[in-house]
Amino acid sequence: MQVSWTRIFPAVITPFREDLSIDIPALEKQIDMLIGAGCAGISVNGSVGENYALTPEEKRLVVKTAVQVCAGRVPMVAGVAELTTDLASGYARDVAEIGADGLMVLPALVYKADSAEAIRHYRGVAAATDLPIMIYNNPPAYGVDLLPEHYAILAEDEKFVAIKESAADITRLPETIRLLGDRYIMFVGIDDFLLEGVVQGATAYVCGFVNAFPREIVALFDLARAGRWEEAKAIYRWIQPIFAFDHDLKFVQCIKLCMELAGMGSERVRPPRYMIDGQDRKAKEAIIRGVLESRPAIPEIAKAAE
Predict the structure, then answer these.
(1) What is the edge-to-edge ordering of all strands in the sheet holding 76-80?
(2) Is the pLDDT of residue 104 over 50?
(3) Among 11, 306, 225, which Cα is nearest to 136's?
(4) d(Cα 103, Cα 81) in Å, to the nearest integer?
(5) What average pLDDT does this structure show over 193-204?
């Protein structure tokens, strides 16, 4: 199906059983729940999905499962996070054959490429597929930074259609729009830049914490896009303590701990990640429980972002 790059695309968690094998029924349930909550697309095998901790076979199984659950209701975008350009290109070809509708491409992991190398990596992956591509820029996490002028170079290839901007600098988004106009669909990639990103021109949002707070975060984004700022700010201020976890080293564990405490899933993660414990857990549990106990009423809103 053609990708409509708009509104919220959840970065879906990968659920694990006690033996740390992938819990496929739980994954199916999670994706179906997110679609039912109003998410406009699904993204798997990204940072939140613990891509690096999955075997090549498991990554493809996750994509196959997501394609089957989405069943054409919403587009399914596969994260591409590999060690080399060749591995990323092979994976891109495989998920296209499985039925993915688009790709969210990360720089090659581990090696901190300069801008010229990063551009070559993205072009190499694009050459391997006809799928539309979201460029994922997250310099704090991956040490590779693409600037607006680099997006201008990649814009020569029409397969690059969207950018998930996760640079810790809100000016990146308006700078890209100033330079390139509406060439790219701009996604907010940092949770506590959401309202600021919408004000600056973002029309979409990749979010991890929507796994635990689906109704509230969908409403928050749609209210913001509709210009209903006071209602949006009320939800934003309520969930801000949770969004602050997006900057935490253990942000994936934080998302899954939110799900565990909300009765929506398991907090299990794969090593080298481990579940939060000790004083850190006590502090985070207190924050999460406080947010869960003070959930606001959600205003009536129907596709306000459109």
Answers:
(1) 7-10, 204-207, 185-188, 160-165, 133-137, 102-105, 76-80, 42-44
(2) yes
(3) 11
(4) 10
(5) 94
* pLDDT for res 305: 41
The token pair at 193 is 């830049």
The strand pairing partners of 260, in sequence order, are: none
In 3D, which of 204, 255, 263 has the Cα closest to residue 29?
263
Residue partners of 232: CB distance under 8 A and separation at least 6 = 195, 220, 223, 224
Identify the structural domains of the chain with CATH numbers, from first to last: 7-237 (3.20.20.70)
The CA-to-CA distance between both ends of the chain, in Å, stands at: 19
pTM across the whole model: 0.94
| Closest of 109, 78, 107, 56 to residue 12, by C-alpha | 78
pLDDT tens-digit map of 1-30 = 677 899 999 999 999 999 999 999 999 999
Please state, in angstroms and rounded to a whole number, the distance separating the CA atoms of residues 235 and 147.
31
Which pLDDT does position 303 carry in this prediction?
A: 47
CB distance 106 to 122 below 8 Å? no
165 — alpha (psi -120 to 50), left (phi > 0) or beta?
A: beta
Instruction: Please give the backbone phi and psi of residue 141, each rounded to the nearest 5 degrees, phi first.
Output: -85, -35
Answer for the pair 12, 211: CB distance below 8 angstroms, yes or no.
Answer: yes
Q: Is the peptide bond before 272 cis (omega within 30 degrees of 0)?
A: yes
